[in-house]
Amino acid sequence: MTRYRNLGLFVVLAAVWGSAFMAIKAGLAHFPPVLFAALRYDVAGVIMLVYAVYATDSPIPGGRAEWTEIAIGAVFLIASYHALLFIGETDPAVTSAAAAVLVSLSPVLTTGFARLLLPSERLTPLGVAGLLLGLVGVAVLSELDPSNLLAGGTVAKLLIFGAAAAFALGSVLTRRVDSEMPIETMEAWSMLGGAVLMHVLSAGLNESFAAVSINLESVAALAYLSLAASALGFLIYFDLLERLGPIEINLVSYIAPIFAALSGWVFLQEVPNATTAIGFALIFVGFVLLKRRAIQDELRYRFGNEVSTSD
């Protein structure tokens, strides 16, 4: 019964996070991009803080290490990631599926940054090949044209690649901080801090509330992103992280593009192309090469089979 429960929650999480790319795309017709992202985390941050008060004994950070971790989360995991993602998705050439595939590069980049920044980590030749393969997937997906780098949504896709890189770097930097703060507290304060930073950036970009259209679609998009994708999504994520571990939960990044493609097709009439599928395949193979040892260990643990770990 527990296995079916975990599987059900995993599918729900992939569906919620995958369809979030469609909701972003839909909402951007009614909001300036950075302001939209900031409002999302105004709501989600408050909800997560209430949950942290309920679920933990330490809802208020204390000490340099905990505030450092929150600063990293606010700058990289929330503000940089979402500002770049939302701006990138304003380009009509970037479908919900393409954005989700680019973001699925984040686990690959996380491993690469970990090898560079964490002394105990190192890249083997196969690991280097996996990282390079993931980057080739981004190049394929971005449809780079050396004669016209501004064509085909290339700049927008590279902005989303930058969002994935910011999230990956932030994930690694938080591991360098010696903090025992509950993850719910870290997420809540990072969301609120990131929202403040995005409001500042939004003002610097001369975005205005006057440009916001209040209607059923805009309210639905903001509510879905704040309540379903952020609040509910992270609650499911925390639960599954404890039950399944980081390897299996990382696979959400590779299921989410399927739901992004389906929701984009149903609600926005977006049709994914072959380039999106090829880019996704390259990124996923790169992830498997980078995480092969952890995947082998996980398979051995789950099924009790002797799996070779030789390169």
Automatic annotation (TrEMBL):
<dbReference type="InterPro" id="IPR000620">
    <property type="entry name" value="EamA_dom"/>
</dbReference>
<feature type="transmembrane region" description="Helical">
    <location>
        <begin position="218"/>
        <end position="237"/>
    </location>
</feature>
<feature type="transmembrane region" description="Helical">
    <location>
        <begin position="249"/>
        <end position="268"/>
    </location>
</feature>
<dbReference type="InterPro" id="IPR037185">
    <property type="entry name" value="EmrE-like"/>
</dbReference>
<feature type="transmembrane region" description="Helical">
    <location>
        <begin position="93"/>
        <end position="116"/>
    </location>
</feature>
<feature type="transmembrane region" description="Helical">
    <location>
        <begin position="274"/>
        <end position="290"/>
    </location>
</feature>
<feature type="domain" description="EamA">
    <location>
        <begin position="9"/>
        <end position="142"/>
    </location>
</feature>
<feature type="transmembrane region" description="Helical">
    <location>
        <begin position="186"/>
        <end position="206"/>
    </location>
</feature>
<feature type="transmembrane region" description="Helical">
    <location>
        <begin position="123"/>
        <end position="142"/>
    </location>
</feature>
<feature type="transmembrane region" description="Helical">
    <location>
        <begin position="38"/>
        <end position="55"/>
    </location>
</feature>
<keyword id="KW-0812">Transmembrane</keyword>
<dbReference type="Pfam" id="PF00892">
    <property type="entry name" value="EamA"/>
</dbReference>
<keyword id="KW-0472">Membrane</keyword>
<dbReference type="GO" id="GO:0016020">
    <property type="term" value="C:membrane"/>
</dbReference>
<keyword id="KW-1133">Transmembrane helix</keyword>
<dbReference type="InterPro" id="IPR050638">
    <property type="entry name" value="AA-Vitamin_Transporters"/>
</dbReference>
<feature type="domain" description="EamA">
    <location>
        <begin position="158"/>
        <end position="290"/>
    </location>
</feature>
<feature type="transmembrane region" description="Helical">
    <location>
        <begin position="67"/>
        <end position="87"/>
    </location>
</feature>
<protein>
    <submittedName>
        <fullName>DMT (Drug/metabolite family transporter) superfamily permease</fullName>
    </submittedName>
</protein>
<feature type="transmembrane region" description="Helical">
    <location>
        <begin position="154"/>
        <end position="174"/>
    </location>
</feature>
